[in-house]
Specification:
Pfam families: Sulfatase, Sulfatase_C. With 588 residues, the chain is α/β, with parallel strands linked by helices. Helix content is 33%, strand content 17%. The strands form three sheets. Strands 1, 2, 3, 4, 5, 6, 7, 8, 11, 12, 13 and 18 form a twelve-stranded mixed sheet that branches. The protein has a four-stranded antiparallel sheet with strand order 14-15-16-17, with helices on one face. The N terminus is likely disordered.
């Protein structure tokens, strides 16, 4: 056994060097690596801050399993999401394209899909890496969160469903976990809807009383019919305000297996064991490979559903408990790979969809993540804290263990990387913004292929970065949100910072930072302090114009028409509105 372990270590040490020599000798050598067709396991956390993980500098949060991935693999320290909220970020991840290209953005403040029963979603003409890998013979699965739409015209057409975007198997939430699933005080939409319904009730009640008084005093010549209808409408609105919370729980917080609802609403104490059981089952079924499995964790989004044996165990309250439980889940998945003999043949990737939420706060208790030294957080399209995320790749014997890369990379890069590893071709009929990471991961390339990266907030360009190779990393902010209260580092009192309107500042000239020396974006450079200020601004503005010329008009999936609740699109496992079922046994 010791002899085998020693051989494995030697193999790991000389294989990357051998690959580097091959790549330097022949341009086509990278295709030799792709010919190995590894299994691909993608792990994505929800709302995790880059500062929440031990290997990224947190010494009070216990994340040994994620840290082990970094020790055995490659860690990216300038890994950037294409959006600072989940729906657009995940669309970009799956397609390798800025979400503005697919229309997975809004222009009116609807930052993510608001309802499962809305018609918006990832368009059917978009190509995901899952679709390409499926065509190349991979078994493809998605377990966990989707949040990229479900139906278009009926409750069963499933036009946006994962199975229509290249996945053979789906188990999880078609929507997203949210505070409203547990009727938390931190609410995404329930509290706002209740307030609106109560306001309308008061207006109609006042109208009804006014009509009654006018009718009885003969001051208003009106029949009793308007009085009755206004009174009935007021009663209906009052009842709706009481039941809207239950509607949300049943409408959005449920589990599906492929096209079938299995649990509506969710029983939270079962969710984590069910997810782990499903992952293990998929790996065992497909261990002869090749497979692509995307594990899209429900952790660490509020309401931070955590099993009892993790509650109160961390130094960071319920949020820390949830992070440490997710790390334990990662460990369980890695154990399954080991047991099934899949570790050495599987490329593993770990990331978060965007930065941690600073506004998830009640009193002095923080229920969102920590973004380390980086300014801002979830929902902020330009500031680093909203878009700089963990990025870890492990492929034993191929990728050098312990390698750290500070070059700019993007979640969109996963698309061309896994497509080429699977022997596929990146689509030529559309712009793909991601770049193949394999040369950078192997060490055969010293620089990222990203010279510029654009940072959007909805459809509005807030910032851009310029990688001036061998010199510096410039960051230009055109628009920034106004933090509240003044002097704070977030938009407290709101769910997220806005992208437009009175609560943002348009900078003229734009703000300039040197991320190489100032990754926290605290020192604004000016023409007086930076000799090349105007040259940098001119070059970045030119890059922005060139980028914008590649954009084509597309319907915005998250705008009002595609992002309102439509009862006829609502998935329901019984006759609507009796949406209740539990169709699968407890996990083993």
């Amino acid at each position: 056994m010791l002899h085998l372990h020693h051989s494995c270590l030697c193999f790991r040490s000389w294989l990357p060097a051998m690959l580097a020599v091959l790549l330097s000798l022949a341009p086509s050598a990278s295709s030799d690596i792709s010919a190995s067709r590894p299994n691909i396991l993608l792990l994505m956390a929800d709302d995790l801050g880059i500062g929440d993980i031990g290997c990224y500098g947190n010494n009070t949060m216990r994340t040994p399993n994620i840290d082990r991935l970094a020790e055995d693999g490659v860690k990216l320290t300038q890994h950037i999401s294409a959006a600072s909220l989940c729906t657009p970020s995940r669309a970009a991840f799956l397609t390798g394209r800025y979400p503005v290209r697919s229309g997975m953005v809004s222009s009116i403040g609807y930052r993510v899909l608001q309802w499962t029963g809305a018609s918006g979603g990832l368009p059917t003409n978009e190509t995901t890496f899952a679709k390409i890998l499926k065509e190349k013979g991979y078994a493809t699965g998605l377990i966990g969160k989707w949040h990229l739409g479900l139906n278009c015209e009926s409750a069963s057409d499933h036009c946006h469903h994962p199975l229509h975007h290249g996945f053979d198997h789906f188990y999880g939430m078609p929507f997203s976990l949210m505070g409203d699933c547990a009727r938390w005080e931190l609410s995404e939409k329930r509290v706002n809807l209740e307030q609106k319904l109560n306001f309308l009730f008061q207006v109609l009640a006042l109208v009804a009383l006014t009509l009654v008084a006018g009718k009885l005093t003969h001051l208003i010549p009106v029949s009793w019919m308007p009085v009755i209808w206004s009174a009935l409408s007021a009663v209906l609105l009052l009842a709706s305000s009481y039941f809207v919370g239950a509607l949300i729980v049943h409408a959005d917080c449920f589990l599906m297996r492929n096209h079938t609802i299995t649990e509506q609403p969710m029983c939270f104490q079962r969710t984590t064991p069910l997810i782990l059981q499903e992952v293990a089952s998929f790996l065992k079924r497909n261990k002869h490979g090749p497979f692509l499995l995307f594990v899209s964790f429900l952790h660490v989004h509020i309401p931070l559903i955590t099993m009892e044996n993790f509650l109160g165990k961390s130094l960071h309250g319920l949020y820390g408990d949830n992070v440490e439980e997710m790390d334990w889940m990662v460990g369980r998945i890695l154990d399954t790979l080991d047991v099934e003999g899949l570790s050495n043949s599987t490329l593993i990737y770990f990331t978060s969809d965007h930065g941690g939420s600073l506004e998830n706060q009640l009193g002095n208790t923080q229920y969102g993540g920590w973004n380390g030294i980086y300014k801002g957080g979830k929902g902020m399209g330009g500031w680093e804290g909203g878009i700089r995320v963990p990025g870890i790749f492990r492929w034993p014997g191929v990728l050098p263990a312990g390698r750290v890369i500070g070059e700019p990379t993007s979640l969109m890069d996963v698309f061309p990387t896994v497509v080429r590893l699977a022997g596929g071709e990146v689509p030529q009929d559309r712009v793909i913004d991601g770049q193949d990471l394999l040369p950078l991961l192997l060490g055969t390339a010293q620089h990222s292929d990203h010279e510029f990266l654009m940072h959007y907030c909805e459809r509005f360009l807030h910032a851009a970065r310029w990688h001036q190779r061998d010199r510096t990393m410039w960051k230009v902010h055109f628009v920034t949100p106004v933090f509240q209260p003044e002097g704070a580092g977030a938009c407290y009192g709101r769910k997220v910072c806005p992208c437009f309107g009175e609560k943002v500042v348009h900078h003229d000239p734009p703000l300039l930072f040197d991320l190489s020396r100032d990754p926290s974006e605290t020192h604004i450079l000016t023409p007086a302090s930076e000799p090349v200020f105007y040259q940098v601004m001119e070059r970045v503005q030119q890059a922005v114009w060139e980028h914008q010329r590649t954009l084509s008009p597309v319907p915005l999936q998250l705008d009002r028409l595609g992002n309102i609740w439509r009862p006829w699109l609502q998935p329901c496992c019984g006759p609507f509105p009796l949406c209740w079922c539990l169709r699968e046994d407890d996990p083993q």
